[in-house]
Amino acid sequence: MDNRGTDYKPLSGAVDDGRFPWYLYWEICTVLTNSPKLQKDDVVLDAGGTSSLFSSYLASLGIEVHSIDSNEEIVENGRRLSEGMGWNMSSYHMDMRKLDFPDEFFDHAYSVCVFEHLEFKVKQLALREIARCLKPQGILSVTFDYKNPAPDVYPVSPDTGFENRLSTRGDIERAFLSTGHFELFGNNQFFDNGKTYLVNPKFDNQPYTFGAIFLQKK
User: Fold this and answer.
1) What is the pTM of this model?
2) Do residues 216 and 181 touch, judged by C-beta distance below 8 A?
3) 69, 76 Cβ separation under 8 angstroms
4) DSSP 8-state assignment for residue 162
5) Residues 160-207: pLDDT tens digits?
6) Complete domains list, the chain, with CATH
7) Cβ atoms within 10 Å, residue 203
8) What share of the chain is helix, strand, coil (3-state, %, to 5)?
9) pLDDT for 155-172, tens place per residue?
């Protein structure tokens, strides 16, 4: 099912737009543009993005990437991909609530289009674990569905409840800052351009869009 809005305009000249619409590129470009510039010796975590375009791109730059996912088939595909390409990219079947990595192991962490699918308490536990595994002042860059009226939240899915929504500044602060492990990095002003690009076909085509937040370990 395609949940792009009726006013969606394909990216000019992008032959793969049907499979990879431009807003997926937007999420990747946003975290790469607004996060600290990666260095060759950095070690990064991709939380929930195993075998993804984003993980593959980072690995292709020579970055040491550790990606986790709950889908064993995707994890196995990530391993095959890394071996075939000769990348330093490791894939793990792992729960974000209990990361099997040492304290202060990663320079940076990313999670692209994942956190909207985590129930509130799972978000909190995942954030605590990511903070534990980040080096001091490490950055966690996150993208998420914004104003989705009923995000597919595991294991609730779909969820219209208040606790799991990400539709206001207050929602975002509650979801990402209430653990006390992170503070905002970069621009501290919440910005909503008022535009929406997606619709939820299961809920009267209510419009929504996407957002990003950048968090620095305290």
Assistant:
1) 0.91
2) no
3) no
4) S
5) 999 999 999 999 999 999 999 999 998 888 888 888 888 888 899 899
6) 40-217 (3.40.50.150)
7) 13
8) 30, 25, 45
9) 888 999 999 999 999 999
